[in-house]
Amino acid sequence: MSAAVDSKLPPEFRARLLAEIRTYLPAFLHGGASERRDPVGDVSELLNLEAGQLRKVVAVHSCLDERVLALGEALAAGMREPVTSSERPPESSQCVRGPVDWGATVAQRSREGGDASRFVVRSAQRVFDTPANRALAWVLQCLHESARTGLGEAVGAAAAMPANEEISKWPLRIKRLAVAVERARGTSWLRDVRPEMPDARTIQRLRAAGSRFYSVLVADAARVLLELADPSEQVLVEMLCRRYFEPAQTSLLYEVWVALRLARAFEAASGRPRKARLLVRAGECGPYARFDFDDGSEVSLTYQGWPAGLEESRLERAAARHGFSVGLQPDIFIVRSGPEPDIAVLELKASVESSTLAKGLKQLYAYLGDRPLAWKRRPAGWLVAPASSLFSDRAAGDEDDLWMLSAEQVVEAAVGRFAPAASAGA
Fold first, then answer.
1. Between residues 112 and 372, which one has the greater pLDDT?
2. Residue 3 pLDDT
3. Rounded distance between C-alpha atoms, residue 145 and residue 131, angstroms
4. N or C: which end of the chain has fewer CB within 10 A?
């Protein structure tokens, strides 16, 4: 994967990648197109994300949502006017402080010998442990955890608030939210309220509350957090595009774009739904997509990892002999199993710099030399880069180890080589 954004790539190039990813990624994550329903797992493995990285993306997204930030700004005032209910528990006393429950009074006097000096009164008491406040407590608890995950640190109520001119920086915006949340969590009346995840009925009650703090701000923030607790494919796409792809390197965006294009093309060639990843052994990378064909073959696509079943890495063996570890991590593998097995490794470079493309060719030779028995046909190493005047699109021969082609060519070339002839021509 490229280490930096190529500054010579025009902004329109990045915008085109994002637009296509927004279009296709929901279909890739949709439960009807895979063997199992796990869009979060799909995202983690497609982007080669550690679980903690994705948790941080979700946490940052939840804290920076406009509806959550609006709640944070209103917390100080809202906590001073909580929604309450009233209870009137019976109280036996000689002092009448509140409405007299005459039925209970007569019953008590008959039980206790007719003492006319005692009355049962029911004084109104404010109750804070209501469904609305339980939902509020749950929202605050979730935001406390999200802020800690997003910032990588705990923030107390006494922390210094960021200056207004610094609020444009997202970590400081989260810190400001975290400070407001911690102060709200320390409110005395909230201490006896148990957090409870709101259901549809509770959200409806919040919407009907007379206070805008509850009916709009708490309800909206709760909806955001409920969506992210079990995000749908649409929510994940929006989150990734706003909080992961946008501030990330164009190189990563380019890799995901090519990976999704390949998956879409092979699904069309197969005519069958894409199958999700099935890890061969725990701890190993597996295909992010697999496709069956009528001749009994299967084409699999693996991102950022070597397919299982290949020969041992010579580089890793040499490093282990001297007491350290090292590894090569290609971008994409295309593997066909079945009657005519085949394999190719793709190195993706989102660049129009000759030095970057030369580095890509060197990496490909390293991959081929590391496991020389793996390659069934030539060219086995494909360098994929944006079309430019820097290189010519020319076909490679069976004797060539490497092939350089544009991103616009790679989908057609991959399907033409790896999909069975009848399917590819369908």
1. 372
2. 45
3. 21
4. C
For 56, the token pair is 């941080």
Cβ(385)–Cβ(406) under 8 Å? Answer: yes
Alpha carbon distance 29, 52 (integer Å): 20
DSSP 3-state of 119: strand
- Report the SS3 class of residue 178: helix
- Cα dist. 310→238, 282, 314, 319, 335 in Å? 37, 16, 12, 18, 11
The answer to whether 196 and 135 have CB atoms below 8 angstroms apart is yes
With a CB cutoff of 8 Å and minimum separation 6, the contacts of 401 are 364, 365, 368, 378, 379, 380, 381
- Look up residue 120 and give its two tokens: 């049962």
Q: Give the SS3 label for residue 127.
A: strand
* Run of H or E residues at 93: strand 90-93
- Quick one: which H or E segment has residue 133? helix 131-151
3-class SS of residue 22: helix
> What six digits make up the tokens of 317?
């063996």
- What angle do helix axes 354-370 and 314-321 make, rounded to 10 degrees? 80
Look at residue 283 and tell me whether its pLDDT is greater than 70: no
The per-residue pLDDT for range 166-204, each reduced to its tens digit, is 555 778 889 999 999 999 999 999 988 999 999 999 999
Single-letter amino acid code for the residue at 182: E
Question: Which is more confident, 300 or 107?
Answer: 300
pLDDT (mean) for 110-118: 71
Q: Is the pLDDT of residue 277 over 50?
A: yes
Q: What order of strands is seen across the sheet that includes strand 381-385?
A: 289-292, 298-303, 332-337, 342-348, 381-385, 402-406
Q: Residue 244 has which token pair?
A: 């992961």
pTM over 0.85: no
